[in-house]
Design goal:
Arc Repressor Mutant, subunit A; five-stranded parallel beta sheet; 43% helix; alpha/beta; Rossmann fold; 15 helices; disordered C terminus
């Protein structure tokens, strides 16, 4: 299917990625989206990671029976770290003496780039399939090195891979190749959390489980966890690159959407198809209205509204065709207001910004409504 350059016009999308964020944002803006980027994580430099250096030396000293590469970037980073410590040749020699397994094609490519060869890689790119194969073969008494891919938190998927191997009798050497920590300055992430909680985004994207965990942790610290989760459960689409990334959100009752392939290009295309299908259109005052996170589309034309007008438009669109009282609209205004005159002023500005004054009808002594019959909204 040919993709329209403007298929995401009017949609606001939050990007939490730390790696390849510019590339991902470009794929979305090329489709017309407005992108708000706030990296939810940062990577500890390998040269500063003494924990990885210790695990590397342990493997060189006592090579494992089996080594498992879980991610391409992680395995490459491991080799780069070993190079920096003067241990690269010794590490390659140790890994050549093991059965080397790759979780997927990216890990396989990194293994081969290091002049090594994997014994096997699952077609599903699934850690579960790797685990099932090892358990079926039997791992009792074996020493197994597992390249990890980040620190764990209360919201990341339970790290049961290593635990399952240990329970089956294996001695597991965990290799923390790159570890995620929160951003040094959380201001950008705080803003993204606030925008999501307020429903000012149409979609929030995640390309790693640690990014999900970091944002949930920060939202909890700032008292925004419940508003954030409510928005993701109701108004804001949570788009994740794959099931591992989606797992922490799914466990909290947040519906997610994922592409068929766990790639950022596939995720951008998936969002380009999903958001327009999910957008609700309202026929009001002879116009077709679609309310987005930070704008309104009128007959296909994007109308950017000031915050007060946008807040009233959202309140009216939640009940298309029904009268919304001045008191309710007053409460919806950012910062509230002292009297209903603030509502009248904001409604006047909203009509002007829409360029379609007949869309909003005044109901004397009661309030305002979108000028539709309830059956006309879709």
């Amino acid at each position: 299917m040919t993709e329209e350059p403007s298929q995401l016009a009017g949609f606001s999308i939050g990007v939490t990625a730390a790696r390849r964020a510019e590339e991902f944002a470009a794929l979305l803006t090329r489709r017309g989206a407005t992108v708000i980027h706030a990296p939810a994580i940062r990577i500890i430099p390998l040269a500063d990671d003494s924990e990885l250096a210790r695990a590397t030396q342990d493997i060189i000293t006592d090579p494992p029976d089996i080594a498992i590469a879980t991610t391409g970037i992680g395995f490459r980073g491991w080799m780069e770290g070993a190079e920096g410590w003067g241990l690269a040749e010794d590490l390659r020699a140790a890994l050549r003496s093991t059965r080397l397994l790759a979780r997927g094609p990216k890990a396989m490519g990194a293994i081969r780039a290091a002049d090594l060869r994997e014994e096997w890689s699952p077609a599903s790119e699934s850690s579960a399939e790797v685990l099932d194969r090892l358990l079926d073969e039997g791992v009792d008494g074996l020493r197994i090195a597992v390249q990890l891919h980040g620190a764990t938190t209360e919201w990341e998927p339970v790290p049961d891979f290593c635990d399952e191997l240990r329970c089956a009798g294996a001695q597991v050497v965990a290799v923390p190749v790159y570890r995620w920590v929160p951003p040094a300055d959380p201001a950008a992430m705080d803003r993204l959390i606030d925008l999501t909680a307020a429903g000012s985004l149409d979609c929030l994207t995640f390309t790693s489980a640690p990014a999900v965990a970091s944002m949930l942790t920060r939202a909890k610290e700032t008292g925004q966890l419940e508003p954030l989760l409510y928005a993701l459960r109701t108004r804001v689409l949570a788009a994740c690159v794959g099931p591992v990334t989606a797992a922490p959100l799914e466990e909290l009752g947040v519906p997610t959407t994922i592409p068929e392939r766990a790639r950022i290009g596939a995720l951008a295309r998936h969002i380009g198809n999903e958001l327009p299908q999910r957008a609700s259109n309202i026929r009001a005052g002879g116009r077709v209205i679609s309310v987005r996170g930070s704008c309104v589309v009128v007959d296909g034309e994007v109308k950017t509204l000031p915050p007060a007008a946008m807040a009233l438009m959202r309140a009216l669109a939640r009940q298309p065709g029904r009268v919304v009282s001045r008191e309710h609209l007053l409460a919806a205004l950012p910062g509230g207001g002292d009297d209903c005159h603030a509502v009248e002023t904001a409604i006047a500005r909203l009509r002007s910004a829409l360029g379609a004054p007949k869309v909003i009808q005044t109901v004397v002594k009661r309030g305002y409504r979108l000028a539709v019959n309830p059956v006309e909204s879709a």
